[in-house]
Dihydroxy-acid dehydratase
Amino acid sequence: MSAQTRDKSKLRSRLWFDNPDNPGMTALYLERYLNYGLTREELQSGKPIIGIAQTGSDLSPCNRHHLELAQRVREGIRAAGGVAMEFPVHPIQETGKRPTASLDRNLAYLGLVEVLYGYPLDGVVLTTGCDKTTPACLMAAATVNIPAIVLSGGPMLNGWFRGERTGSGTIVWKARELLAEGKIDYEKFIELVSSSAPSVGHCNTMGTASTMNSLAEALGMSLPGCAAIPAPYRERGQIAYETGKRIVEMVWEDLKPSDILTREAFENAIVVNSAIGGSTNAPIHINAIARHIGVPLTVEDWERVGHKVPLLVNLQPAGKYLGEEYHRAGGVPAVINELMKHGLIHENALTVNGKTIGENCRGREAEDRDVIRTFDNALMQDAGFIVLKGNLFDSAIMKTSVISKEFRDRYLSNPDDPDAFEGRAIVFDGPEDYHKRIDDPALGIDEHCILFMRGAGPIGYPGAAEVVNMQAPDYLLKKGITSLPCVGDGRQSGTSGSPSILNASPEAAAGGGLALVRTGDRVRIDLRKGRADILISDEELAARRAELEKNGGYPYPPSQTPWQEIQRSMVDQLSEGMVLKPAVKYQKVSQT
Ligand code: FES
Ligand code: MG
């Protein structure tokens, strides 16, 4: 839009700072924002006021460098004729918050909605990075629907230990095995894990952070290439500046989240998630964003749209490399360019730079073909999630890109093969129960067992714990059996390579079938048919349900904080995005 057509009277911030109909309120709104040196000219001459939603702090090391990047964002905003106003977002540090950081996603969402709605902001830069900061910001931008643009913080530099890449999160699973097997001691354990975090930035693996930032870009909500630039690289500061410049133009163009976050954009995100080997947390967060912008999207869409897509990105935990190689190979635009060659992307989906995703990504050939593969040389075919259901739950998902080749060949690849996985259930009620009993020889766990984790969903363990991927008992580890199939109503870390069936909905605490399974039950998991069932009669199942209800339902521990209680009283299930149910009806609130 040319400068001549810029209509200052349309700016939201005019209502606060230049409203002749209400001089009293205007003066009150204005005087306090003058008190640190802003001039009346800056606030009253029709410059867009741009919020910088700051997710970095000392409590949030993954996002902490946004405190410095914000300076470049401000310079970009200023250069484009806007005024920057930075403000804090409730911190969410994946590795710091007890009982789990995902409890705070909806709290940060609520807080950000109030800020975006209630203050004189014409547009906002969303600083994202660590796992839940990205969905929290996008959910709030979706609800309020003012022009918004994502600035990722970028991943840390690659971790190295004795000449090998150590990926954040992923190394913890490996180091735990080494510790359990007695191959390293506690000192070496800490040293090994710390080697994976050599700089500022978020996890350098394709965990939930790199996934969600890649998907924010695939949705069209960040500038092309933004997701993958490592946090300390010069390009990170440069794109912070460009992002600041661009949001001012977006305000003049009135380019809002509802113009970008369409059904097509969400399907693009699902396809990209399969190709990057993205986290199992993605369906929860992406479905939540869709609900807040009002686009229908179900957990079944993840299999329907995403399962047939091959794995193209060779990053840990599904592959070999880390964030620096991902960026050098071309990042998200190179992945989308590959997918476009096979007609898998809705190329007309609009993005924050005013161009379509097709225009942004066409011809962005990958610079390293071992890191970002072609379809002919994909790391795996059919790499998207599959969705299961049965008498255990209405839906649960499985990340097929981390299943071993043997397991895949036997239970998944040939659609005509009747073979399904059957095993004996070992049931744990929450992570504490698991830690207490996993090594108990009385359980008799062997390689024919399936481990169950329940009481770990949004209500049972407020926020839903990342605990479904359970390690086998020490005595099996020592025999070289490192993973058993796991099923649960909680989540799994995006950095885990475990082939678990997770996000089961409804959870045990909401009356799901997991509440009825008992240790010793035979359980059948048919990946080809998408079924997961306890092998007991309908009568026995009904009797167990009647007993559960007589006892007042599946028990879970009391809340420890007010927010835990509030969230538990109104949270939806993982398949529905774990959103706050009463929040969903509030859409486009900036127009109200
Ligand atoms: Fe923050 Fe992984 S812990 S991104
Ligand atoms: Mg995590």
Q: What stands out?
A: The pocket of magnesium ion (ligand 2) is lined by residues 94, 131, 208, 466, 493-494 (CB under 6 Å).
